[in-house]
Design brief:
Distance between the termini: 55 Å
Number of domains: 1
Strand order of the largest sheet: 1-2
Order of helices and strands: HEEHHHHH
Structural class: mainly alpha
Shape: rod-shaped
């Protein structure tokens, strides 16, 4: 019996009952965490951009794509919060003198930064 193309390329088979199944092993992939921003992006793609989602999934690029989005969103979030806090005069001195005002302003700044990231990175 002539070897199949799979066998000619170095592939091997294993017998499971009456069937010969190919030994397929996926290459090792770097483990990267997908945070909240990556999860939101994945949910958005899966719901509204199915073709892109499944193309990334089947090409095994989805996890790295989502990890990159998560990293970009985190960097952007911290940068925006720091810039907005400076612009609005939210300092450690305010935190020491009036904690409730500081918390209120920081919550507003964080919410604004989250809205910007959602608009520009996650849901676009």
């Amino acid at each position: 019996m002539e070897n199949s193309l799979f066998e000619q390329m170095g592939g091997t088979y294993i017998q499971q009952g009456d069937y010969m199944l190919p030994n397929l092993i996926l290459p090792a992939e770097e483990e990267r965490s997908i945070g909240i921003w990556g999860q939101r992006r994945a949910r958005y793609l899966k719901q509204y951009h199915k073709i892109l989602y499944y193309n990334l999934l089947t090409s095994r690029k989805l996890d790295s794509y989502l990890a990159d989005i998560n990293k970009q969103a985190e960097d952007m979030f911290f940068r925006l919060v720091n810039e907005m806090a400076k612009q609005q005069g939210v300092t450690e001195q305010l935190k020491a003198s009036n904690q409730m005002a500081w918390v209120g302003k920081m919550n507003a700044i964080r919410n604004s930064a989250m809205e910007i990231i959602n608009t520009e990175l996650i849901y676009s």
